[in-house]
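[job 4471] stage=fold_predict status=RUNNING
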Amino acid sequence: MKCTILVLLTSLAITSCSTKPDQSIRLKVRHTIHIPVEYVTIYTGVYKKGTDANAIEKSGYDRLANVVALLEKLGYDDKQLEVNSGEMSKRFYDEEIYEYNGSVKFDLKELDKLDTFRRELTKAGATTFSISSYKHSKEDSIYDMAYQNAIQKAKIKADRLISNQSVKIGKILNLHENVEEVIEMASTNQMVEPPPLKLSGMPSISPVEPLFNKEYYTKSIEFTIEFALKEK
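[job 4471] inference complete, writing structure tokens
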């Protein structure tokens, strides 16, 4: 895994430009940030269905308990696990079928063990395993740096567009931002540090050759920026 923080500015294009009588210029800019995957949040869970509500609830709960117990053996504690102990429901279109859903969320930093985790949690009883989000502990600062770079490039582009006129670019008058996250992010980038995993101390676990190789996730910015124009 690459640990160096890297920001790739892959797209910056002016899609419209206009000058106004009150001496300003407005541009619409698209910008894409590529952020290294430092760690992931895993969603794993248990789904059971059947005609006996009591049996389904017990079977689903016991399987979820096995999943939580495995994670605790691997070094996770209560603060590092977000456990939903389960929901029972009856299918609205089939009164004879009951369903149980329970889940656990946790962060995984040792990405080379992701495929091993999936296999072992499935053995423990999990029926669902997926990456709910990709993260980087310094995402905010990476984003802010790239954002400022995008504004600076927009200013350079605007300078070029008015290079044959008697005005120059001044301060920013208006800035409207629309951020599209390709992968949904959590509202905070603070994480409870995942534990160093104990696979070597658990002889029943055989490491799986990792196939996971995602290096970056992306966030796209689209914003409209209006610069004041002033006499040269």
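[job 4471] summary: Residues 66 and 185 are 28 Å apart (CA to CA).
[job 4471] exit 0
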